[in-house]
Amino acid sequence: MAKGSKETPDGLRNKDALVLQSVSTLALPYEAVNPIALSEDESSVAHSCPINYGLLSDGLQRLVAQVEHVVVEGTGGWRSLMNDLRPLSEWVVQEQLPVLMVVGIQEGCITMRY
């Protein structure tokens, strides 16, 4: 799931998801890399369709079955709320994914990671 997607002739596309797709060792369709694209105006909380965690989990399992490592990039922060007001971090814990936290070195970033 990626926020900040822009309309293209192929539909909504997020630049980070396109980078992940381009460096994948598999030729993956965009939807396998980013099953839920949110426009720049949408947030995951305001998104009109409920976030389908089953879709995310199923897609993750399909990728895990094909490769040795899968990179799941966060969307807007570790505790970003989805539209059911559940933080995305709960899905990460549910899927038992290892976490690498990257925090920018600027005022406020250390306290915002929680």
UniProtKB/TrEMBL annotation:
Q: What is its EC number?
A: 6.3.3.3
The biological process GO terms on file are:
biotin biosynthetic process
Keyword Transmembrane on this protein?
A: no
> Which SUPFAM superfamilies would you find in this protein's record?
P-loop containing nucleoside triphosphate hydrolases (SSF52540)
The question of whether Nucleotidyltransferase is a record keyword is answered with: no
What GO terms are given for molecular function? ATP binding; dethiobiotin synthase activity; magnesium ion binding
User: Which major enzyme category is it?
Assistant: ligase
Kindly state which keywords UniProt assigns to this record, in alphabetical order.
Answer: ATP-binding, Biotin biosynthesis, Cytoplasm, Ligase, Magnesium, Metal-binding, Nucleotide-binding
Question: What InterPro entries does the database record attribute to this sequence?
Answer: DTB_synth_BioD, P-loop_NTPase
Entry's Gene Ontology cellular component terms: cytosol
State the source organism's domain of life.
Bacteria
PANTHER family per record? ATP-DEPENDENT DETHIOBIOTIN SYNTHETASE BIOD 2, DETHIOBIOTIN SYNTHETASE
| Stated name of the protein | Putative dithiobiotin synthetase
The gene it comes from is bioD_1
